[in-house]
């Protein structure tokens, strides 16, 4: 290699080296770790006091939401559907009309029943009032006519008997006259009985018989009226239409389902309790219910019933919990979690959950002394609820750090610049 080239390379290397040294010389030096007064500078932290509370230990059981009431409305009459109140989801109140059935035929049956009743009532009224003067005159005239006919027949009979004894008339002629005599006597007796009945009035048993007919006609009329009313189908409860079993124009028979209604102002969580929990639950107990589908919103519930018999398939004891649902946000079929209180701890010392730091050796809290010195204190955790956790050993009123714990250790100085919860 030529000497001039070598000298050029050396010059370039020297220039680069000089530049690098100059850059390093002009670079600011990194600050050395603080010592002395700088090391003692306090760290600002947020802290929260240790509280004394009554906390409950809970266990969760899962269940499914069902309506408090489910009613399937049926038709009590036969006919085509004329009108429906709405579709699935429609809100109805007790007594609201939800369907109408064409009642044209039922109206005709009602008119017929009304006519039969009026006719029976008129017969009873006439029987109770007795015979009229005209009917009495007709009965008397009939008796007079029968008496006259009987006298003539009697005279013919006596004359024929005399002639028969004399041998003047034949036996056949005599028998014919005797027959006419018997007929005339029977007619007279019948006419006299009719007159006696007219004068006496109706017999009690006759009146009772007609009264029974009136009662029967009255019941038939009431039934016809009820069938007309039943053609208008109303809601038996407050609720929403869950299922429509028919449509306008469909023909319904007696007993055919029309709609299924569900009452949702209150719902029931059907859950199951284990052997350990079943004896901790009593009807009337208050519990907390969470609905995962509603962002775990918590509701207050009340135990309605606890079955004394285990379910053979789940090996759990069925439990029913009532929950108020005024906005109808909780829907049947949603999953629910029921928190059951299994133990209550009074005078429990609690701190915010954020005050606890989990280390390899176990959980600790950083207690702030009166002089601002930190004490790293191992603790035992207990019940956790509402963002706070039971810890031991701590004393009521002590302050624990709830921020910047990664910078803390035994003996570190801090200043409390905020309150944590």
- What shape does the CA trace take? rod-shaped
Mean pLDDT: 85
Question: How is the biggest beta sheet arranged?
Answer: 6 strands, mixed
Radius of gyration over alpha carbons?
Answer: 54 Å
Number of strands: 20
The number of helical runs is 6
Q: Pairing-aware structural class of the strands and helices?
A: alpha+beta
Helical proportion, percent range: 25-40%
Given as residue ranges, the uncertain stretches (5+ residues, pLDDT < 50) are 1-39
Order of helices and strands: HEEEEEHHHHEEEEHEEEEEEEEEEE
Strand content: 35-45%
CA-to-CA gap between the ends? 79 Å
Give the secondary structure arrangement, pairings included.
Elements: H1 3-26, E1 43-49, E2 51-74, E3 79-84, E4 91-92, E5 97-101, H2 104-129, H3 133-166, H4 171-200, H5 204-230, E6 232-234, E7 239-244, E8 251-252, E9 257-273, H6 275-278, E10 286-291, E11 297-306, E12 317-324, E13 335-352, E14 357-359, E15 362-368, E16 374-378, E17 380-385, E18 388-392, E19 399-401, E20 414-419
Parallel strand pairs: 1-20
Antiparallel strand pairs: 1-19, 2-9, 2-13, 3-5, 3-8, 4-7, 5-6, 7-9, 9-12, 10-11, 10-13, 11-12, 13-18, 14-15, 15-16, 15-19, 17-18
Helix pairs in contact: 2-5, 3-4
